[in-house]
TrEMBL record:
Pfam families: Polyketide_cyc2. It comes from the Bacteria. InterPro entries: Polyketide_cyclase/dehydratase (IPR019587), START-like_dom_sf (IPR023393). This is Polyketide cyclase.
Amino acid sequence: MITVDRTFTVTATPAAVLEYLRDFGNTEQWDPGTQTTTRTDAGPIVAGSTWHNVSKVLGITTELTYTLQEAASDRLVFVGRNDGATSTDTITVRPAEGGSEVNYHLELQMHGAAKLATPVMKFEFEKLGTETAKSLTETLNKLG
């Protein structure tokens, strides 16, 4: 399993951060690997809402279906699945002086033949984790 964990502070309030991040479609604005993310259901965004995500990592395009598994007052959990992997993205937001502390935790489980790529993918996702934290910090600071 690949695990990536980043914690950073932003000037936006926890409510603004959670409201923005609740819409997984916004990954197009801050996730360097994401090419497109399209909502696949309708209505308010609640636990059970779904998105089709197309990402490119190491030159390989992959598609996952993401579901908002949990939407708590301080945490969002998104689970993305396809035949080759399951990605669990947990975002925890707490008040901090001048804004919010955001923890972005990714667990990526490769399946089948894709498991062979785990060591290479771990290195790439560590790099992407740093890029994502930087991009997400810049994006969330614009909300504040």
